[in-house]
Structure formats: C-alpha cells, structure tokens
Amino acid sequence: MATGNINVTAENIFPIIKKFLYSDHEIFLRELISNATDATLKLKHLSTLGEVKGDIGNPIIEIKVDKDKKEIRIIDQGIGMTGEEVEKYINQVAFSGAEEFVEKYKDKVEDSGIIGHFGLGFYSSFMVASKVEIFTKSFVEGSKAVRWECDGSPKYTLEETDKTTRGTEIVLHIDEDSLEFLEEGKITQLLNKYNKFMPIPIKFGTREESLPLPEGAAEDAKPEKITVDNIVNNPTPAWTKNPTDLSDEDYKEFYRELYPMQFEEPLFNIHLNVDYPFNLTGILYFPKLSKSVDPMKDKIQLYQNQVFVTDNVEGIVPDFLQMLRGVIDSPDIPLNVSRSYLQADGAVKKISSYITRKVADKLISLFKNDRKAFEAKWDDIKVIIEYGMLSEEKFFEKSDKFALYPTVDKEYFTFEELVEEIKPTQTDKDDKVVILYASDVKSQHSYIDAAKEKGYQVLLLDSPIVSHLIQKLEGSKENIQFVRVDADHVDNLIKKDENQISKLSDEEKETLKPIIEEAIPKETYTVQLEAMDSNANPFMITQPEFMRRMKEMQATGGGGMMGMGNFPDMYNLVVNTNNELVGEILNTKTKKKQERLIKQAFDLAKLSQGLLHGEELTTFIKRSFQMIK
Ligand code: ADP
Ligand code: MG
C-alpha cells in the first residue's frame, strides 16, 4: 500500500473545486460517464488496431445507486488503468491523460474524436462525494488491479486489489449535503439531460418487458414478462449517421426524440457535417413558429462528442438562427469559458459562419428543388430569414437567391423577378422603380385597391422588422424605393410626369387651405391639396413613408436613431380639389355649415383609416344622424 500527496500546487484544491469550478454540481455524473465512455471508446479503438487480446464483447457502462450505503457507482468495461497510470492520470491533476493518449496514438486516433475536453473532469466527483474510490484493472495483460482512495484532502491511498474484470469502477461516497443525488428520479433526470445520446450504452437498473403473445393464445392470456437491462441512451443518434442513410421520417423521428413534448412537426432540417477546419456535426430544424412557441423552451442543444453540454448556444450559433431547434456536436468549441471569450474565439467564429452558410445553401436548394413547397413555407420562415438578412451580411448577399416578396394576392417574386415585373409600370419620372407594399390587407384595403386599379403590384410585407429590411434593401440595391400604399394618394405614390388639371384656381386654393386647417387638428395633420380624378374621394388620410418608417424602426430597435426622441404620429390630409364636395365646401357661405362639412368629410376619411375612436366617433355618429334628419 502506498500513500502520498496529490500533485497540486494549491494546498487543498478540493474546496475550490467544490465551490467554484462548476456552479452546477450535477455535472459530476456527466464527467464520470464521459471518462467511462472515453475509456470504452479507447478500448474499442485499440481492439480494432489489434492491440487488445481477445474479444471485447459489447461493453456497456453501468450506474448503480445504493441509498442505504449512500453510494453511487459508475462501472465501465473500458481500458482501465494500471497503478502507474492512476499515479499519473489521477494523482497528477495538472497532467492531462488525454494529451498523453494523443501523443501515444497520434496518427491512429485522429478520426475517432474520442478525447474528452473537460479538463478537471474526474475531480468534479468531489463536488458531491466526501470520499471517492477507484477500482480499476487495465486491459494490458498481466496487469494488477488497484484501488485508489481519497477523502477530499490532498492525501490519497493506492493499493492492489482483487478486481478480476477489465475496466474501472468509481465509487462515490455521497456527502451529506448532496444526498439528493441518491434519488433514482434525480439520476434518471441527469442521465436524460446529459447522456441521452452518448455513444456507449448506459445501464441504470432493469425493467420489465412483455413478450409478444404466442400465436393462438387465449384471449385472457397474460404475456410473459422478462427482465432486461434498462438502457437509458440512444448510442447512435441521427446526427452521427450519414445523411444518405436517413429518410425524412428518420429526421422527424429524431426531432420527437429530442423534444418529446413538442407536437408540431418541423418544416425542414439541415444536416451539418464538416471536419475541416473544425469538426462539427449536427441537425438543425426550422420549426413552425407560432405565437404560442416559447423560444426559451426546446432550444438548440450543444454536445461534445455526444455529451450534452448546454442549450445556450449564444455566440456559437448566429443570433438569427437561435429560433431553430436541433443539435450541434463539436469537440472544437472551448467549454467552461465565458461567453465573451467564446465570441472572440477564431474557431467559434468560423463555426458560426459555417452554420450561416449551410442554412443559406439549404434554403437555396429548397427553393430550387420545389419552389411551390418553399413558397408555402415562406410565412413560417420569413421572420428568421429577414432577421438573418439584417444581421448577417454574408446571409444577406445570398438571400437574393431565396428571399421572397409576396404580393397581396399571394404571388411570390424574388427581388430580381419583382423588379423585372414592375419596371414597365412602376418606374417614376426619375427612373426609380417604386415598390409598393402594404402591411395589413384589411386596414389598407382602399389604398391597395386604388393601386391595383392603376395596374400596380402591391407586396404584402407584414413582419415586424420589415421597415428595417426595406431600409437595407434601398441602401444596397440600385435605383429602387419602397413606398407603403397609404403613404400618399395613389397618383403621388409613383410620381410620373402627367399632371391633372385642377378645377380650382390658385387663388381659390389659397382661400380653401386655411379654412380646412382651422377645422382640423393641424399639429397632427398637414393639409395637402391635390388635383385628382373627380371620382376619387374628397378627403383622404395618408401617412408619409419617411416618418412612419423611422417611427417603426425606432419601435423595433433601430440602431443609429438614439437621441432623436420619440417620433409623433404624423399624417397628411389629402384634399381632392377636383371633387365636387370640395368645391361646395369652398362656396358655402355659412361658416358653421362649412365647418360641419369639413368635419364630416374629415371624420369619414379617418374612419376609413381606422383612426376614429371614442369621443370623436360618438360626435361623428351624432352629427351624421343630424345631417340625414
Ligand atoms: P480528462 O477526461 O479531460 O482527461 P479527467 O480528470 O476526467 O480529465 O480524467 C483524467 C484521466 O484519468 C483521463 O484522461 C484518463 O486517463 C483517466 N481516467 C479517468 N477515468 C477513467 C476511466 N473510467 N477509465 C480509464 N481511465 C480513466
Ligand atoms: Mg474526463
């Protein structure tokens, strides 16, 4: 028997580990199972290299909990350790066993990705245990089994023991303040969270399984029951497989496995698979985004070699894709570092742009392969795509190939197609192509109608960040301009050279303007006299594009508009000087009657914009009844 001091620089590292290293004590189980998995994968690997004698069978990992003895055991059938190896890998904390292994089998292990990257993994057991024992026997023939024991002080014991089977058994003597980990339910929950997809089968207890009834069995026959190992994980989850071996149904099945409480099917998936310049696999799903979807739930999960790490993928997955679901698995993402460090890390940046590129490529291929189906999904995916176009320049550049611009009649154009389509009719006198859009079909109905009447196409752009998006499009595309249909009278939306002849003289106009201004709240409404078709309504309310868009951008978090204060709602009252009623208003001699006419016409215009409420509405109704009396 040997005793000695564990080679750590700090006088006693364990309290530090316990308190500070991991805020989450529960990860001890993940760490120990990771080690058991590494040891088993190493064994399998060495076996394929012919360096292990005999058949290794199908090694599994077993977790046992003994509540009475307050023990948790993690048992593997992996490579085990000799006494010297325990000295080296366990006692010399600073020395990474993983590094040693890589050194030794450098050119042979490259493809296997079997090295854990968890640093002080083993010592995390002291977060929950007051004493830890290791029973281990190396796969190397003739090696003697050893027992190591440590109670949390830097002192350890190492001696020979009589373990006869290959592998390692870790015994945790659970501390009084961590007794919750002796609950079967707690362990099951942890296994489910961290180990659901680990590559070696993990056994936790047994369960009963009913055998199928033999043919011709009596109706009331009871199926025979057998006891089987309760394997808690799926060692070969979909993302570890080759995309060509997976059907649509397999992907959906995996989605259900990932999110058992999620009943809505995903729209489509993206299989990630890259090994240079970094290693990353995974499957991302575009979910159907409904208002009831809780973005805090069912998030993308990050794994390292099939070990769950976190579902906070901030910094790794670009912001706009965080509404996606699925799995990312990469050994190249540094863990246990701060988020700001992550964002500065070169490899992580590459990962983020790789993911962006893959998503863009997938969208392009979906669009190309089945445009109709893609159009049908557009409403569900547009917010993510538009957000991506705004936040990732690379994505924006690619988006021309798949971003769609639907009209109010549900016709879908790409940007290029749209400009091509409307150029002949919607080019203004300065040779700018004016793209008309609506944000709400119902409330902007009359404006949409008027524009369509003129033979214009009207887009329906109704996502919350649209004002930012069109601002960006105007900034990056040549000679185009977006104008919402209610921004002006239809003849002014796209300014052409033709001028309507005004029935009113300039003098008459000058008389009319102040009369109207006096009858309406002029802080909010600017009177704009226009000679239009005599059949067009006498009064109409428009909301100038610029102010409205700035206001919207400010409301949805526009950069660069800080300090400009709050934009008030500003409207124009467009008065059609060719409409008969307007002539009548001008010629009405009784001041009171004139004012009533203006107010009535103004209220009707407001009504059609949905701007008439409360007291104003009541007054309007009263006045209307009086007028028809
Ligand atoms: P890491 O896993 O990052 O190397 P750990 O502290 O988790 O760091 O483990 C230290 C070393 O101890 C491992 O690299 C390995 O050599 C050895 N080890 C730990 N657990 C086992 C095990 N179950 N079987 C064999 N070796 C193990
Ligand atoms: Mg480890």
From TrEMBL:
GO terms for molecular function: ATP binding; ATP hydrolysis activity; ATP-dependent protein folding chaperone; unfolded protein binding. It holds the Pfam family HSP90. InterPro entries: HATPase_C_sf, Heat_shock_protein_90_CS, HSP90_C, Hsp90_fam, Hsp90_N, Ribosomal_Su5_D2-typ_SF. ATP binds at residues 31, 35, 76, 81, 96-97, 168, 339. It comes from the Bacteria. Keywords: ATP-binding, Chaperone, Cytoplasm, Nucleotide-binding, Stress response. This is Chaperone protein HtpG.
